Amino acid sequence: MLTVLLPGPMPNPQATRPPLGCNTPRIQHRGPLLDESLDFMREMPSKPTPPSFVVLRETADGAWEFLGEVRRKPGLAAQAARTQAIFEATAGKAKAGEVYAAVLASEWRVAQKWNAPTA
């Protein structure tokens, strides 16, 4: 069984027990941290950044050209939001037959943090 130690007062023990047969870790609280800078679980960004798309266009030689980063329009379905981002990045000049990609900026940043495995 995995035990996760969290800061703060001990909650109701019944609330921390997983159901029988469940592999959920048991959570135990051990009081305040000595170094508050380590308390990353309580930190919340003051204002989260709104979602945005990184927009790319495939060139004739198969390479990808970066067109820009466009904020996602709230209220649109995923495909409609991607289409809107492509039209904004191309100033409305995107045409059928051209290949574009609108990738969530958060995924784009994570994908760039890839490290080669060590041998």
The main sheet comes to: 3 strands, antiparallel
Strand content: 15-25%
Instruction: Give the overall shape.
Output: flat
Tally of extended strands? 5
Cα(first) to Cα(last) distance is 32 Å
Secondary-structure element string: EHEEEHEH
What is the count of helical runs? 3
Which structural class fits the helix and strand makeup?
alpha+beta
What is the strand arrangement across the widest sheet? Answer: 4-3-5
What would the average pLDDT be, to the nearest integer? 76
Roughly what percent helix? 10-25%
Q: Give the total of domains.
A: 2
Which regions contain 5 or more consecutive residues with pLDDT less than 50? 1-6
The radius of gyration is 23 Å
Task: Briefly summarize what is shown.
The protein has helices at residues 13-16, 78-89, 105-111, and strands spanning 3-6, 26-29, 52-58, 64-71, 100-104.
List keywords for this structure.
two-stranded parallel sheet, 3 helices, 2 domains, 3-stranded antiparallel beta sheet, disordered N terminus, alpha+beta, 119 residues
What does this structure look like?
It is a single chain. The protein is an alpha+beta fold and 119 residues long. The chain has 2 domains: 3-38, no CATH class; 52-111, no CATH class. The protein has 3 helices and 5 strands. It has helices at 13-16, 78-89, 105-111; strands at 3-6, 26-29, 52-58, 64-71, 100-104. A 3-stranded antiparallel sheet has the order 4-3-5. The two termini are 32 Å apart.
